[in-house]
Adenosine receptor A1
Amino acid sequence: MAHSVSAFQAAYISIEVLIALVSVPGNILVIWAVKMNQALRDATFCFIVSLAVADVAVGALVIPLAIIINIGPQTEFYSCLMVACPVLILTESSILALLAIAVDRYLRVKIPVRYKSVVTPRRAAVAIACCWIVSFLVGLTPMFGWNNLNKMRRTQELNGSHTEFVIKCQFETVISMEYMVYFNFFVWVLPPLLLMLLIYLEVFNLIRKQLNKKVSSSSNDPQKYYGKELKIAKSLALVLFLFALSWLPLHVLNCITLFCPSCETPHILTYIAIFLTHGNSAMNPIVYAFRIKKFRTAFLQIWNQYFCCKTNKNASTTTAEPGN
């Protein structure tokens, strides 16, 4: 029995390490591409960098901590809580970055002429900072008291145990399921996802109307301008769809755990849901590479210049076009 559990853990760790090995380099490449390519220096891509930073942290921090939790070491309660909280911070950061991207795309098609005066680099930086501050507040809420410490102490007292309070470190042991469902999911995950869905529907509706009317815009060719906006909006909507597809199963399982305590959830489903959440951090660079031409060009420039010893002299002179 011990051998089978050990083999299962080895398989789990191997898959997690594989996800990290794809996620970390891929998202570092995204950050690198934005840094080196002038064509990627606008608000949308700044928000994408914020999303990429969170994804790098998932691969470099959350996945190693998840492996530790899977092993289940004996530790003090708040030490385990500190191990469990980073994933909550980074999840919320990703959601708010996606929301900022959606709002940015909406403003691009709603007020194309005034967009650059409204969405300035300074305002984008302030928005990113606010997203991270809110993410830390939401993710660290369990450290402020909304956790399972009192419940575990009551259980220990009922069992008549007076030994030092040490636990087996597991996520559901220290994180309150009421927090995960009522606060995290119902307040900070589901409403932003629904709001983003409405925003993208409105973006597509506005673009369709503009393409039909061929109204004037900041571009000399309205058809070309809104065509580019449509293409990049589809790509970023795909990023949102993949995020929702990756994270909703785990939140649904949390709801089942809270509202149906007698229901037995197969462990394999929980592990699949966890793999989906971690794997989402590796998906975005692939989407950017295949769907957004500027990223694809920047990735090839980096590859040729730094890995194939082919300096692209035009890399630093690329000029930006709005919207793609």
Observations:
- Residues 55 and 281 are 5 Å apart (CA to CA).
- Confidence is low (pLDDT under 50) at residues 311-324.
- The first helix runs from residue 2 to 36.
- The longest strand covers residues 74-76.
